[in-house]
Design a protein that fits this description.
- The two termini are 27 Å apart.
- Helix content is 83%, strand content 0%.
- α5 packs across α6 and α6 packs antiparallel against α12.
- The protein has twelve helices and no strands.
Length: 303
Amino acid sequence: MATDAVQPETKNNDAVRGFGFALTAYLFWGILPLYMKALAHISAFEVIAHRIVWSVPVAGIVLLALGRLGDIKAAFRNPRTIAMASLTAALVTVNWGTYVWAIGAGHSLDAALGYFINPLFSIALGAILLKEKLAPTQIVAICLAAIAVIILTVKAGTVPWVALTLTFSWGFYAFFRKTLPVGANQGFFIEVLLLCVPAALYILYLEARGEGHFYQTGLSDTALLLGCGLVTALPLMIFANGAKLLRMSTIGIMQYIAPTMVFLIAVFLFKEPFDTPQLLAFSLIWAGLVLYSWSMLRQSRER
């Protein structure tokens, strides 16, 4: 009887803890544009190089504290694991680079749009590559997102490449990341470890030419570049621990927190233009996300 009394309480505690972890990660990601805006005077390539290099010690310390460094040794003995990690590392680099450039170049709204579209793209990806059956509401949601992209393309005279690059890179990253046979924290450490050497060489190249911003342009730039490791690794690892304790339906709803915050920052703090076609496009995507969330919650209740 004592065991029966403890189990619900433990389960509830796990859910609350998981919600706290996930919320912390999404709030981190939500305010990340403010941090990246402070680095807007530095090229996106240099910022990404520092994000990679300084993420290695942060992720390494976390794994050391968790006693999971042995998993890394085992992973490097498996060529297939390293090949898959190299692919996901390349995809996440494209995603980070596009995001950093977008914030610095005044395209934060496009970044928000990309992460709003992403859940709907992931549904389509699952249907195409995994032959997953789509509910009618999910098909409508995907069509609404497609119409929104067409509206933005007609309005701008070109495809919204920032939003689509973020959507595709993160969607495929998440897809292939699921096949990586290691934990979330271990996988992230392997990815930045694989990227670390070329990133470090690029930083050294810039510093040798006097074009770098580490130690050469003041304490502020140095501190911000050092902090790139923390703002990159910590939210990912915090989220990984929260995701293990939450239902997918809960995560599915919470994933709108960050792009909503980015959208609000772009419009009200960065004062980026937000006209009628953009309002219509975002409204269609928001409607699609409501349908997607409703369908996901209904499926969760049925299960």
